[in-house]
C-alpha cells in the first residue's frame, strides 16, 4: 500500500506540474509590451517621460525679455524668473517614429488666486506657438500630445514649466552728461517689468525736444533693466547745459501707473573726478 500511495502522489504531482506549465505558457502568449498594443481596438497608453526613440515630445520654451539678446531656453520641470513684457516661443519637438496622427495642446495658466492648468489662461492647439506675458505673478506652462493610429491612443503629458514675472519698478535719474566720455552719456532709467512707457523731454519754454516709448527706446547692453530714453540731442546737436523737463507716463506688469514730472540737468562739461560749475542756459535753440 505504501508503494501504491507513493506512485499515486508522484503521478498527481506530475499532472499538477504539467498544468502549471501550460498555464504559464498561455499567459506568456497572451501578454504584450506597451509598444505592441497599438493594433488593439480602443487601447490607450499614457507616456509620462519619453526616450529619444519613442513616441512623445521634447518641449522647450524660449524666453525673450525686453532685451531680446538675453534669451533663455527651459525644459519641463524647470523654472524661470523674468520681467515683463516676456515673449515666449513654445516648441513641441514632437517625436513620432510610427507616423501617428497627433494633436498638440499647450496650456498656460496663472498660479495666482488658486489658478490651475484645469482653468488655463491660454490654450493653443499648435506644435509651435508664441505668447507674451505682461502681468506680474506666477505662471505654469504644460504640453499635452495625443497620438492615434488604428484605434491605438498614446497620451503624452509634460512636466510643467514654472515662470515668475517680477513686479514693476521705475526710477529716473536727475541728469546726465552727453559729452562722449563713455560715462553717463545718455539719459537712462531703470525700468523693471514696465509694459508701457511714454516719455517726453522739453526745454523751459515748452518746446518738445525728444520723445521715447518702450518700443523705440534703446537697451543698455548687459543690463536689461536699463533703458536709454535720450542722447541729449535736438535736431542732430547736443543741447546746451541747463535744466530741462521730463514728462513720463508708464504702466507696470502689476498695473501700477507711473506719472513722473521732474527737472533734469544736462552738464556736458561734467567729467568723472572733476569739479564742474553748472551753466545757466536752458535753451536748445
Can you give a write-up of this model?
- The chain folds into two domains: 36-165, Immunoglobulins (Immunoglobulin-like); 169-266, Immunoglobulin-like (Sandwich).
- It contains one helix and 24 strands.
- The protein has one helix at 2-30, and strands at residues 44-47, 56-57, 60-64, 71-74, 79-82, 86-91, 94-95, 101-110, 122-124, 128-133, 137-149, 152-157, 161-165, 169-171, 175-176, 187-192, 194-202, 208-213, 218-220, 223-230, 233-234, 237-238, 242-252, 257-266.
- Strand 21 and strand 22 form a beta hairpin.
CATH architecture of the largest domain: Sandwich
Instruction: Specify Rg, calculated over alpha carbons.
Output: 34 Å
Let me know the largest β-sheet.
Answer: 7 strands, mixed
| CATH topology tier name of the largest domain | Immunoglobulin-like
Helix run count: 1
Oligomer: single chain
Share of helical residues: 10-25%
Alpha-carbon distance between the termini?
131 Å
Mean pLDDT: 81
Spans of at least 5 consecutive residues whose pLDDT stays below 50 are 20-52, 276-285
Number of strands: 24
- Domains (count): 2
Shape: elongated
Structural class: mainly beta
CATH superfamily of the largest domain: Immunoglobulins
What is the CATH class designation of the largest domain? Mainly Beta
Give the helices and strands as they follow along the chain: HEEEEEEEEEEEEEEEEEEEEEEEE
β-sheet strand percentage = over 45%
Amino acid at each position: 500500500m505504501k508503494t501504491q500511495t507513493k506512485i499515486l502522489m508522484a503521478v498527481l504531482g506530475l499532472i499538477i506540474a504539467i498544468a502549471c506549465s501550460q498555464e504559464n505558457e498561455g499567459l506568456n502568449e497572451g501578454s504584450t509590451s506597451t509598444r505592441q498594443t497599438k493594433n488593439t481596438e480602443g487601447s490607450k497608453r499614457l507616456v509620462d517621460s519619453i526616450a529619444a526613440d519613442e513616441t512623445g515630445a521634447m518641449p522647450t520654451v524660449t524666453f525673450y525679455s525686453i532685451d531680446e539678446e538675453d534669451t533663455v531656453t527651459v525644459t519641463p520641470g524647470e523654472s524661470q524668473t523674468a520681467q515683463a513684457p516676456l515673449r515666449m516661443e513654445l516648441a513641441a519637438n514632437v517625436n513620432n517614429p510610427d507616423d501617428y496622427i497627433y494633436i498638440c495642446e499647450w496650456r498656460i495658466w496663472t498660479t495666482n488666486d488658486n489658478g490651475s492648468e484645469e482653468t488655463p489662461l491660454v490654450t493653443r492647439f499648435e506644435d509651435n506657438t508664441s505668447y507674451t506675458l505682461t502681468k506680474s505673478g506666477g505662471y505654469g506652462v504644460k504640453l499635452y500630445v495625443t497620438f492615434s493610429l488604428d484605434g491605438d491612443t498614446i497620451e503624452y503629458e509634460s512636466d510643467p514649466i514654472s515662470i515668475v514675472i517680477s513686479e514693476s519698478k521705475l526710477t529716473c535719474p536727475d541728469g546726465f552728461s552727453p559729452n562722449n566720455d563713455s560715462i553717463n552719456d545718455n539719459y537712462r532709467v531703470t525700468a523693471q517689468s514696465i509694459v508701457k512707457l511714454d516719455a517726453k523731454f522739453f526745454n523751459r519754454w515748452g518746446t518738445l525736444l525728444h520723445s521715447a516709448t518702450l518700443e523705440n527706446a534703446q537697451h543698455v547692453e548687459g543690463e536689461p533693466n536699463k533703458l536709454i530714453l535720450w542722447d541729449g540731442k535736438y535736431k542732430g546737436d547736443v543741447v546746451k547745459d541747463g535744466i530741462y523737463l521730463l514728462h513720463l507716463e508708464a504702466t507696470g506688469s502689476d498695473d501700477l501707473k507711473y506719472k513722473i514730472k521732474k527737472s533734469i540737468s544736462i552738464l556736458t562739461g561734467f567729467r568723472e573726478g572733476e569739479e564742474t560749475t553748472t551753466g545757466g542756459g536752458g535753451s536748445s535753440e
